[in-house]
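Q: I'm writing a short explainer about ABC transporter for a general audience and would like to include a description of its predicted shape. Could you first generate the structure from this sequence?
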Amino acid sequence: MTDSENRIEVQSLSLSYGNTAVLKSLSLPIARGKITVLAGPNGCGKSTLLRAIRRLHKPESGRILLEELDIAKFNDRALARQIGLLAQSPSAPEDMTVEELVRLGRYPHQSMLQPWSQNDSTALEAAMEGTGVAHLRSRRLGSLSGGQLQRVWIAMVLAQETDVVCLDEPVNHLDMAHQLDCLDLVRRLNVDYGRTIVLVLHDLNLAARYADRLVFLNDGVIAASGTPEELMTEAMIASVFGVQSMVITDPVHGRPLCIPLRTGPAHNKGDADAARS
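A: Of course. Here's the predicted structure. Afterward I'll give you a sentence or two in plain language.
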């Protein structure tokens, strides 16, 4: 391990789908042991960046460093022992049990000579206990609620025992209670296990509540990066998302809270002023 404060460095990364440029010479440091949230309009490159960090997309130019080493130089299993990814809306057979799915997280640590070890069993149990799904181990995936299933997927990633955990919209399709439950779990992974978390979220208020570092993407580039307090301003939200808003301080958590007013450019400052009065 190096002394660098950044766990990952994305350097001048460009990536296209066919003739469509998705990431455009994008550079981004990702701080060690922090929660970095990627946010921005649909199609801005958030999920693509996350998948590129896990080397699921090959860049046209630029590179991604993990502990100052180019991830292109890692073999597949070695990289999977360093970076875990939970993709958006993952799927698995409904008749698979919870334990069977969580066990898949141990694949990068196994070999032909030792397909399962005591270390694997210890990691499996720790992951299920840590996510609160141990009591569901024999349940079929098809019998679980949305919130339970998302916890099982996170348990699988946790069982992988990676220092970096990438989560693409982990609260997608969950109700409010399960969204908070899921993100509280993610924060515990960060605080209790010291994981570096890279998280894609659409909900700006959830992003502001849980992020140590907030990154706004727009049209394949970094529009802004900083603390939630630095980025969650009415001018920035209008510029990146095309939404007029009023930003106040959450009276409970002390984080910025965005109240959308209308879409379109901020022609009339009186909209926000009227909302305040």
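A: For your explainer, you could say: The CA atoms of residues 35 and 63 lie 22 Å apart.
Q: Perfect, that's easy to follow.
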